[in-house]
Automatic annotation (TrEMBL):
UniProt domain Lipoyl-binding: residue ranges: 4-78
A single MF term (Gene Ontology): dihydrolipoyl dehydrogenase (NADH) activity
Residue segments, region Disordered: 81-115
Organism: Spiribacter pallidus
Pfam families: Biotin_lipoyl (PF00364), Pyr_redox_2 (PF07992), Pyr_redox_dim (PF02852)
Sequence similarity: Belongs to the class-I pyridine nucleotide-disulfide oxidoreductase family.
UniProt superkingdom: Bacteria
Catalytic activity entry: N(6)-[(R)-dihydrolipoyl]-L-lysyl-[protein] + NAD(+) = N(6)-[(R)-lipoyl]-L-lysyl-[protein] + NADH + H(+)
Descriptive protein name: Dihydrolipoyl dehydrogenase
UniProt lineage: Bacteria, Pseudomonadati, Pseudomonadota, Gammaproteobacteria, Chromatiales
Enzyme class: oxidoreductase
Amino acid sequence: MTQAKEIRVPDIGDFDAVEVIEVLVGPGDSIEAEASLITLESDKATMEVPAPFDGTIESVSINVGDKVSEGDVIGTAVPAEAESTAAAETEDVEPQAAESAPAEPAATPADAPDAAAAAGANANAAAPAEADCDVLVIGAGPGGYSAAFRAADLGLKTMLVERYPSLGGVCLNVGCIPSKALLHAAKVIDDAEFFADHGIEFGKPKIDLKKLEAWKSDVVGKLTGGLQGLAKQRKVEVVTGPAQFIDDHHVSVDTADGERRISFRNGIIAAGSRPIAPPGFDLDHPRIMDSTNALELEEIPKRMLVVGGGIIGLEMASVYHALGSEITVVELADRLMAGADPDIVKPFRKIIDKRYANIYLNTRVAGLEADDTGVEVQFEGDKAPSSDRFDRVLVSVGRRPNTDQLNLEATGVKLLDNGCIEADEQMRTRVPHLFAIGDLIGQPMLAHKAVHEGKVAAEVAAGEKSAFDARVIPSVAYTDPEVAWVGVTQEQAKAEGMDVEVASFPWAANGRSLSLGRDEGITKLIFERSSERVVGAGIVGPNAGDLIAEVGLAIEMGADMHDIGLTVHPHPTLSETVGMAAEAAAGTLTDLYMPKKKP
């Protein structure tokens, strides 16, 4: 019988002394290559250790609860007789050979459009014969790392270039994740204050900014550290530094060790966006912040101005108000959260009207003069004062794509008038082997959109037949209460001449919302009248961002009002409001007297 071989814990990233939570094999068990042997769990990730070859387990050296690190012996196994020699050669030789000679990407599917197939063939013909990788991804945000990991899973040698030391991009490091951590902290404070009127009274909260900042950073660190581990598991090489295109198949990366030139067969551009400021707004001044600076929690300003009444500005206003700042919001438009229907924003507006010092609509900031102690602000608007003074100003009026930082002029990629990259449903640019995703290709600039686009780009680069064909993309403001919407809004339906039926269910009639003491919410569904299919929704109330996903799925699946209304929702929950809004449209609602109107 062939001599048994030791099986050791492979490279598991930056993890050390990871706990074994499952042992899936025992002596005498047959194993297949890549089948799971054990499962490990750290505070950042759960991972399975696969078998390196076919064979039979001879002994197992570890038990559930043991702590293991890279190189520790899991056990021994006898390789399958027919593959013993090949397995030995593969362990000693093939990995190095694979790194020096990248596999050719899969060909474009035969049933793809002729033009795309021809373009793909031309791109491959022009690719460097000895490229450093099959796929190079620029930008490690949710879209970028998803693209890189998907490409690696499809067997392509993949490299990931990220400007900053941590993976995760704006979302994980200075956007979605840290802001939601702080918004949760704000909600704890608001909830405690709310229950003072209902028999549970707490003392005034003591804010330790250093501890709060450390907790927020720990949340971010767990996620970004987990990404580093996932990259290593997939053998995705991460290169740190800003990238500049040299031509359609080469980039230069300014790394800590000097300039590095990388050649690639396919490129996925996922470099994201950054905050913008109107002319005259000096974001370099410490008292004038953008959304990134606002997350650093340097101090709690006594008086704070938020310029911009969109999602990001209002989320940060929620955080700073809960921490103790007096908030003023100024918005150039005639309403807050312009993307949502006014009736969905109205309950949120009623609450912040009581909380915030001022909300100025139809008003612009005409000038800012910052000094060491504060910022003098000049306003132009009917109800705003001519000027006021604040301790800090948060500027949140939009974002711009980072296309100007990549030297795209050296490529054949085409930019639109707004600075975004032109890309098709397969995420291809005008250069067939270059793809663009996420904020770089325009609105909506949302992480969850970028993730799906990144996977499509990777699949197309691997020769799969794939396209981004989302019917709807949900939007969520994680304010208090949350405001969420998906699909067609009521205003949009009217503007486009759609014949729709609208049904709303007030949370004041929902048992769960009443038990939470939050009856201000509304769930509104919008149905196409002829088919009775749901085409849009708006929800305001606690956890609206979670509830909106059900409607997004319903739209994707082509569900009608009866499908949703006849779906049994658990009781008592907030999710019942979705079912009951559909029942209101269908005329079957019993929890309120809302007879269905005759056509």
